[in-house]
Specification:
The structure is a homodimer of 420-residue chains. With 420 residues, chain A is of the alpha/beta class. The first copy, chain A, contains 14 helices and 18 strands.
């Protein structure tokens, strides 16, 4: 029998306990041993929870209990969770976590501390989709050319509704909050931070690269307007928040932002609250992994898969996918050096000479225009929507600043990157 | 250093050798040990191959060589491959295979023979997609409700061209043969047998069920006509060859056949020569795994992932996913008891009373009609296309036979199952 201690008995923790009971037959047959949740840690003992395990508000009771074989960390947050996981690993107790923030900041220290003790985290990225498993084990023969992940269901749900049902941002945010898809303070999701945490974990497995959220480009979906949506439709694009990792020679681009992506691409078809991760390997080509990225049961499915793995083989693959460092390691590309295509939206004065001025500001930085759409706003103003061929982030940023102060553009132009 | 012996040095075997060299840096870092192909077995030593390893036509040289750590079986076929794999495992040499036919017939004996020796086969199903990995490890907490797999790229390519470019079956088959997607004798692919082999492997992992190709319903795509294609388009269906496994109480339906599937479903979007497998777990919901199902490099990607796995952890998960049998094991459902929706196509005399007769033959078996489309063929004949609500395979088969001898239907009606 394998006895589980659950630190944090919220939605996911309760699902873990319930599934271990519901699916005891198949889990025991697959694991070769009975897996039983025996104790849990909560902050507030007076709050009612639908579990049969013994609850305490003192985590040390679990950490010091020799009868607990595996610690499941579902408390969330960074520093307190780090202390709990560290202690457990130092005691040689295997740990399973769903905590992406913890890993975004401490994955390399924890790998070190874990040593030969199993430390697994399938549920930390894309919930029920076994993407850690796929990237770390299934695609291990490949140099990874790129990862593009729809790894925040809240944003995908909102963008889907905005583009397919023409619902404005504020309205759909409120609806997402009512449905429980978005928090009261939605910044963590709609600002791209949640996706960034997950992207950093994937990037470690793909590239062996250590980076923190502060090091990478993170933008959210807060500034998407109905004009952007109309442009996307006009040119057969979907609008998605993507976590992107791309290898270019010995550099890796890591970035989270909204993108316009051709409708025909497989990842553009990942709709609603679902997650999807496209991984391109140099040998396998494009693969895509699709499923529920959140929710108690889907997340618990991944947590329990890790527990079964530990029951079967103890410590399996190296935590972050590498048994030794890459000889010629990869480094993080500068934000300025990111290269992609761009969509620009700006309000301009509706008079002659304006287009020439804009074209000149772009042209002198070798930014060439691919498509353009001008829509009258009122008698004196127009909305100008255009897309560019591939150019550098630095050049676009400079061009946007010059456009702003050019006298012909009426406010700071908006920009969305295009993934093709 | 881990030394590999490759039995069968064709397209995949050569890719395995090449990738181990091309990606040596990342493979070594991930595996923690250098992986080197050292010897290969071929039938015809005079044929030129693009590999640097020592070649022999005597497999025993490899099996008896203590310097060879892992045998990679890529020779294909069933009985000869079985003997080779058996000998290797009996000598305690781990085996990696891409041979689905071997596993379709001998997976349970080989699991027994392997015991604690690693025996892996990721490449046997859906080529480069790590679906064995996902189903056996990533989704192990779930009772699997269903698997629906596009696991034959040849058929998917042909159906895609038939439906999206209106190319007739014979023409597209010839094109697929010229492109190397279909063999000179295409029966194995277009008859559904290749997909059936793969389905049986997945069904063992999902359900612990032992079945052989002879035990299950296997139909191909040979009888699809332009009328069927037109009907599919009319009602927003895609046309796919699916391998289907479905749990219904304590029975499992296993079947391979063409299906009409609503365009909006994620698996309907898997186009061209690509593969995709949708797995529905009772806790995780629907997941989908997409990628290249064939080709030297994609298949070799999976073979090498298995070798890296063995380097990392020796024998990992139980070969077929179960460390002990399920207490209340599942059994194979009878072909007659399959329940689904059906599309029927028949040529009828264009005169009064015909529809009433057909409706009566269906109605007395509780087969109710959902949609109908009648198209005049000439002055005396019409094509009748209809879809049913859910009913039993046995009833449909009986109805089709009665329709044939009813006097109003001019030849044996055609039938395609509908997956919704």
């Amino acid at each position: 029998m394998l006895r589980i201690g659950v630190v944090g008995v919220g939605t996911v923790g309760q699902s873990v306990c319930k599934i271990l009971e519901d699916n005891k037959d198949i889990i025991t047959a697959r694991a070769g041993v009975e897996i039983v949740p025996v104790a849990g840690v909560v902050n507030d003992l007076s709050k009612k929870r639908d579990v049969k395990i013994k609850l305490t508000n003192n985590v040390d009771e679990l950490l010091n209990d020799d009868n607990i074989d595996i610690i499941v960390e579902l408390m969330g947050g960074v520093e307190k969770a780090y202390e709990v996981v560290k202690k457990a690993l130092e005691k040689g107790k295997p740990v399973v976590t769903a905590n992406k923030a913890l890993l975004a900041y401490h994955r390399y220290e924890l790998q070190e501390i874990a040593g030969d003790t199993a430390f697994e985290y399938e549920a930390a990225v894309a919930g029920g989709i076994p993407i850690i498993n796929a990237l770390r084990d299934g695609l291990s023969a490949n140099h990874i050319k790129s990862i593009r992940g729809i790894i925040n269901g809240t944003c995908n749900y909102m963008l889907d509704k905005m583009i397919n049902e023409n619902i404005p941002y504020d309205v759909i945010l409120k609806e997402a909050q009512e449905l429980g898809y978005a928090e009261a303070d939605p910044t963590f999701d709609v600002g791209g931070f949640d996706a960034a945490h997950k992207l950093l974990i994937l990037a470690s497995i793909a590239y062996g690269i250590d980076a923190k959220p502060e090091d990478i480009l993170i933008e959210g979906i807060e500034n998407i307007t109905s004009e952007d949506i109309a442009f996307a439709k006009e040119f057969n694009y979907s609008l998605k928040l993507l976590g992107i990792a791309k290898k270019k020679n010995d550099k890796v681009e890591l970035r989270v932002h909204s993108v316009l992506i051709p409708n025909k691409e497989m990842i553009a078809k990942v709709d609603g609250v679902m997650n999807g991760v496209s991984v391109v390997g140099d040998k396998v080509g494009e693969t895509l992994f699709y499923g529920a990225g959140a929710g108690g049961d889907a997340t618990a499915s991944a947590v329990i898969a890790n527990i079964i793995d530990i029951a079967r083989k103890g410590k399996g693959s190296p935590m972050l996918g590498f048994n030794m460092p890459l000889e010629d390691g990869l480094t993080l590309a500068s934000k300025d050096d990111i290269e992609t295509k761009y969509y620009l939206r700006m309000q301009v004065e509706d008079k002659s000479g304006v287009l020439a001025k804009i074209a000149s500001i772009l042209g002198k930085r070798d930014i060439s225009i691919k498509t353009m759409l001008q829509k009258s706003y009122d008698e004196t103003k127009a909305n100008l929507l255009l897309s560019t061929h591939t150019c550098k982030e630095k050049d676009i940023k400079e061009a946007l600043n010059e456009l702003k102060s050019s006298g012909v553009v009426l406010s700071m132009p908006a920009m969305i990157r295009i993934e093709e």
